[in-house]
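Structure (tokenized):
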């Protein structure tokens, strides 16, 4: 099957072998039906045989090991222009961490929707008002100008050209590098809650729409369609999600 090169599926890995839960997450990539190229973003020199057996045909994009040494280091990598330039031949990146599972493979509506960023909504996020106040002060925004509380990065669709354009703007107007993490927490917060309010072109869905793409702490309401992907499956509501992932994988595929 010819690959659809509008979107690359990027899976960050850092351990020499996946855990049992990660094996299920990697197997769930099968639900995409091989339509999109899959790339492991990995520390240079990491043994990858166990991953490549699970995802035959996947490619590898190596990065310096220091980028995987901590959550902070990973955030700085995925908030850097160099990360997105590695994938600049594609229009979109579906970033799927190894604790996220797909529930079906219908990515097409989201590629057509045109959002800059899609990720699960944040619920009961006590840190959010402080970040929003910071963004308003930093960019001189009116107090009422807020963006939706969406954007969990563990399973997210990112429009690569918009990310690079946003970074160029930030490089001209943002604070010094040393102050980056203290001001912006993790990279998904940086893109969606700090930069998005200042950039009209950087579009996010509302929380209800975002939840039809991805969920994390929430569960679907009765009769609500399942999202494309669920992040932190083993942490939040595994008894609900894991059987659905197994059932999806058991379905015959063309």
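Design, position by position:
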């Amino acid at each position: 099957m010819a690959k659809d090169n509008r979107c690359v599926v990027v899976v960050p890995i850092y351990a020499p072998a996946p855990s049992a839960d990660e094996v299920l997450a990697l197997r769930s990539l099968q639900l995409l039906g091989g339509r999109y190229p899959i790339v492991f973003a990995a520390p240079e020199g990491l043994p990858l045989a166990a991953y490549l057996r699970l995802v035959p045909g996947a490619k590898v994009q190596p990065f310096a090991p220091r980028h995987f040494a901590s959550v902070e280091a990973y955030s700085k990598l995925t908030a850097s222009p160099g990360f997105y330039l590695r994938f600049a031949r594609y229009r979109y990146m579906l970033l799927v961490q190894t604790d996220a599972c797909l529930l079906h493979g219908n990515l097409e509506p989201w590629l057509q929707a045109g959002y800059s960023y899609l990720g699960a909504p944040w619920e009961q996020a006590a840190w959010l008002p402080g970040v929003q106040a910071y963004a308003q002060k930093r960019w001189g925004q009116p107090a009422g100008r807020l963006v939706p509380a969406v954007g969990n990065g563990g399973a997210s669709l990112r429009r690569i050209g918009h990310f690079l354009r946003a970074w160029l703007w930030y490089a001209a107007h943002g604070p010094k590098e040393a102050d980056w993490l203290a001001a912006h927490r993790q990279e998904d917060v940086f893109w969606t809650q700090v930069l998005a309010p200042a950039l009209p072109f950087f579009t996010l869905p509302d929380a209800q729409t975002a939840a039809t793409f991805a969920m994390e702490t929430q569960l679907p309401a009765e009769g609500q369609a399942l999202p494309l992907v669920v992040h932190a499956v083993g942490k939040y509501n595994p008894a609900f999600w894991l059987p659905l992932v197994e059932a999806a994988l058991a379905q015959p595929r063309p």
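Reviewer-requested clarification: The first helix runs from residue 20 to 27. The longest strand covers residues 150-159.
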